[in-house]
């Protein structure tokens, strides 16, 4: 078989810089080890067996998933300790049961009395003691119960009295994506920790065992200085990082391990535009840096070797066309500098969204060879 | 086999309202018939065999694709007349040649002397007379040569003298998506027509046959009153329509044939939020209505029967979580009104982007039954 390289792959292609990804994995695991907590990576970012096995190899204990399809796929890869970290819809309980009956140590989550009752009723009816984490809201971001509220204890009681296993509490301080200073991040990490620990202590004080205290988001995980009372941390996007995370301040541009390889297919010389074959179908429609301190439009353009080209952004995107332009003033020499056929790489705003646009990754080794790593999508 | 319905499908799911799609197909084809031009649908919107066969059944002549993967897939479905409407990158010429050698009547496009030379050199080297459309820019939107410029004639000469078939000229007035009045749309449709016809006449005057004059975008196609000199029209999103097209003014809300079925998985009662299982992974990150006259955020929420719920929008989206809220003031009764397990449908901003998030569609018949229609993605 001929070895593929960045010069021979069809474009657009999703390139994983393997040494960077491994460095990112190591960095997070080392930080978690230093803080004395277990680490449970969120695999929704990569949906890729090779990446997840590397995370487990580095020391992760179990995985976090955002869909039961991810649970199915990674259970088929031999991973049994799986947390499904989206509040379970009652119609999915049969699927969760089926996974557990096949030997998957699946944990589910809930944040309402109604759902807790459905879980308990279904579990009892089928002789299954579901392990459940109760979701807590520590930053007003999305889901979860107030750590100091009555509902938390009601949910714990409904599950416990209903014969289910209250395995613990969990939270996700997703508002960390909106911050961009180390102090603010450290403060939110502490708020996330304190809120979740408070919730656990209240559940325990009510007489319900609550061993697990699970927190995390990439920015808070990397910014936490002290995780007393926490038993595990979850994070996903750190494995690749992206321009949003760079703006948040938790990675350097040179840590971003996912890029889109693209080919120049035309020009608009008077406008100083390159037309490339990476549009929004390749990059996704995510413009997550548009409200951050540095707006990268649809992505930062790099040379084929990964060196960022200062000021060149993917300034516009149609379905299969991208427009590359130099910020500020048009590049009058852009046609000569980047003729048709030139290959470039684009760093994405949001690795989870860009990765999801592709059926497979191309894993780039330091020797310049690439190999396919599968990924799945859908539900 | 048990018949599926909107009440039993797993969520999120991409629902095609079949009667609406058929009505949209019929409407466009009737309009093209009335204007006396051939219609060549852009299949990048659906990437679905059943939809495309319905378009051909209604009278379409050939298809338009945005990737060679689409060409491969639809050629495998028995469709031979295919226009690959993205400027061809030289490294894709062997793939195009292989399709033609297998019997696919593939036409390619270009808008530069450099690419035209590559096509001619490659074609001659392999004894293949590629049919080529020259891309013309009629609205400054993206790619294409000026209809009155010298480059147009140079490209025509390079192809013609190089032994290729200058099949014609083509343009896409994509800036039509930014308009929202019938007058402005009709004016742009005329500008698109006139520019493309001018280009064809200039090529012919230079002694190069140029039979095809191909124009189109959904808004201009539906707004054109006269297409003298045009031989074919291309459009894609009209088959499903979406909220962006509704804002542009070329469809009613009730024409939108694609929606995402979702389940309520939780609440934040104090905020008046529903948490649903359709986040940006289901809807895409497209917020194309955010700068239009009506901002629908991530989508318009409807009851399971498709009736829009006035003021309820998908106001926020994380990967697998969506936040539904009533605009203006919080709905204090939202928990009672839409309990956990309630099924809703969300109309998307951009059907091409939302469809691409799914592995398959669920085609909804008037009797309430659904069946799977496949779709593909990637390159």
UniProtKB/TrEMBL annotation, chains A, B:
Gene Ontology annotations of biological process type: D-serine catabolic process
Pfam families: Ala_racemase_N, D-ser_dehydrat
Highest classification ranks of the organism: Bacteria, Pseudomonadati, Pseudomonadota, Betaproteobacteria, Burkholderiales
Top-level taxon in the UniProt lineage: Bacteria
Matches recorded under InterPro entries: Ala_racemase_N, D-amino_acid_metab_enzyme, D-ser_dehydrat-like_dom, D-ser_dehydrat-like_sf, PLP-binding_barrel
Family listed: Belongs to the DSD1 family.
Name this protein carries in UniProt: Alanine racemase
Record key words, sorted: Lyase
Gene3D superfamilies found in the cross-reference section: Alanine racemase (3.20.20.10), D-serine dehydratase-like domain (2.40.37.20)
Molecular function (Gene Ontology), one example: D-serine ammonia-lyase activity
PANTHER family: D-SERINE DEHYDRATASE (PTHR28004:SF2), ZGC:162816-RELATED (PTHR28004)
Species, as recorded: Bordetella flabilis
Annotated ranges, domain D-serine dehydratase-like: 257-365
